[in-house]
DNA sequence: GAATCTATATCGTGC
DNA sequence: GCACGATGTAGATTC
């Protein structure tokens, strides 16, 4: 079937023979959607067993396998891109999807297949903004939002204890370490900053300051921050949303 | 259409009128799958714009919205469960999915709808094992895997600075803090343990030990661990996989 | 390939 | 509802 430039096919209540030839012809080439009752077994980093039930199965041309039930954003089982997908012409028909690192395998036993569809899909353009990196950019363009006299030096500054979002100097020449969070900062953000802070304090002669930049932080995060001698600067997303 | 106990419906190349009545009747009741060219705009914690392109749209009865392209395990855009989904009978037909906290909205402009399917789905049983909690259970049942004389006291021990996986006493009566990781431990695991360690050392008179239990840890994690005076115990997943 | 961090993370739990 | 940690996290980036 063809509409505009998109070719797609639909099989309703297909026989096993139809399913097998349909799938073997189309996997890795088209976006395949199967609605069927199935059992699913997963074994790898963890293990899972799913009893027979109707589910939605998606096979992407890049090797991704996604199995959904009727609830949640997260799939019941999955395999990421690069997975080796095989259709086993057994009774019942079986889809085996495995990858090497980590070694993981999903087996899908297809019981009743209600429909299968397949389509050639070319991806469109996608632009996203408002991520952490955008905030770091805003700081570099508006260093005074940290404080008067702040001079950004390096972003993604590498240390053995992790990458520091931004390092710079204050007007007194102190080393300044900045960790940015795009949403309310939690304990882990403070720990992360403290890890960098300790490392820089040990390896640099200069005085060091650690600053957490976020729209807000939790009560416990604030307590810990103060106890550790670190600083907080509120990032008002409204104020700098013009970029 | 009915096969066994599963009722499902398929519309091929539906008209706008058909799409509208089909969707309004079925959202929040059935698992709906749409394959269509569409534009997608998202605005909330971040923002995104996706140009017109064929995509797979899933509307779950719990309010979940998932939009997939032909690559990746992760959807292009989404809304989690609890989202308010509306079908707007405009030209073009539009799906608006919004939630309050955080305030986020997705607008999907449907251009050409190739097919829509819908099905009543009751979820099956699902059992998973091999998660962190299973390792903690194993330790509690085999305390000697920590060391001779170790006595587990409390799991999920609450502190202002986070929940400690397991606390106990060693044979000398020292307080022992245990952080468990199911895969190779990284810097953040060491920071996490250290946060708990500092807190307990400050609030308890007793001597305190912090132990990281994991199958392995990265080089830098090991360095930091040693520097902070914390300990590591290897958890051999093979050895205790019998539970 | 290993290590680290971000994510519109999502999800579960405890308060 | 908030805070916090786990996730079979996935995905991007750097080394």
Number of helices of chain A: 4
Coarse morphology of chain A: elongated
Radius of gyration of chain A: 26 Å
Q: Give the overall average pLDDT of chain A.
A: 94
- How large is the share of residues in beta strands of chain A? 35-45%
> Most extensive interface, residues per chain?
A-B, 72 and 72 residues
Order of helices and strands of chain A: EEHEEEEEEEEHEEEHEHE
Q: What is the SS-derived class of chain A?
A: alpha+beta
The number of distinct structural domains of chain A comes to 2
Query: What fraction, in percent, of the residue positions of chain A are helical?
Result: 10-25%
Enter the CATH topology name of the largest domain in chain A.
Protein Yojf, Chain: A
What is the CATH class of the largest domain in chain A? Mainly Beta
Domain Endonuclease NucS C-terminal (chains A, B): 132-236
Subcellular location (chains A, B): Cytoplasm
Family (chains A, B): Belongs to the NucS endonuclease family.
GO molecular function, one term (chains A, B): single-stranded DNA endodeoxyribonuclease activity
Task: List strands and helices in order, with pairings.
The structure is a homodimer of 243-residue chains.
Chain A: E1 2-3, E2 6-12, H1 16-26, E3 31-43, E4 47-59, E5 65-68, E6 77-79, E7 84-88, E8 94-99, E9 104-119, E10 126-129, H2 132-141, E11 151-159, E12 162-169, E13 175-180, H3 187-203, E14 208-214, H4 219-227, E15 231-234
Parallel strand pairs in A: 13-14, 14-15
Antiparallel strand pairs in A: 1-2, 2-9, 3-4, 3-9, 4-5, 5-6, 7-8, 8-9, 11-12, 12-13
Chain B binds a DNA duplex (15 and 15 nucleotides) through residues 42-48, 72-74, 77-81, 101-102, 104, 128, 130-133, 156, 158, 162-163, 165, 181-184, 186-188, 192, 218-221.
């Amino acid at each position: 079937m063809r509409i505009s430039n998109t070719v797609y096919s639909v099989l309703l209540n297909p026989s096993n023979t139809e399913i097998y030839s349909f799938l073997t012809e189309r996997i890795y080439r088209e976006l395949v959607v199967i609605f069927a009752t199935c059992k699913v077994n997963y074994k790898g980093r963890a293990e899972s067993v799913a009893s027979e039930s109707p589910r939605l199965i998606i096979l992407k041309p890049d090797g991704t396998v996604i199995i959904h039930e009727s609830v949640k954003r997260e799939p019941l089982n999955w395999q990421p891109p690069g997975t080796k997908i095989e259709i086993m012409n057994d009774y019942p028909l079986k889809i085996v999807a495995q990858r090497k690192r980590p070694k993981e395998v999903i087996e899908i036993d297809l019981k009743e297949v209600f429909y299968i569809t397949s389509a050639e899909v070319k991806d469109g353009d996608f632009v996203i903004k408002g991520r952490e990196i955008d905030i770091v950019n805003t700081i570099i363009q508006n260093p005074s939002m940290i404080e008067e006299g702040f001079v950004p030096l390096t972003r993604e500054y590498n240390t053995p204890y992790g990458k520091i979002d931004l390092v710079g100097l204050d007007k007194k020449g102190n080393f300044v370490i900045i960790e940015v969070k795009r949403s309310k900062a939690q304990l882990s953000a403070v720990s992360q900053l403290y890890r960098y802070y300790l490392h820089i304090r040990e390896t640099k002669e200069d005085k060091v300051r650690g600053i957490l930049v976020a729209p807000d932080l939790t009560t416990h995060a604030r307590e810990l921050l103060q106890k550790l001698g670190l600083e907080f600067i509120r990032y008002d997303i409204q104020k700098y949303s013009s970029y």
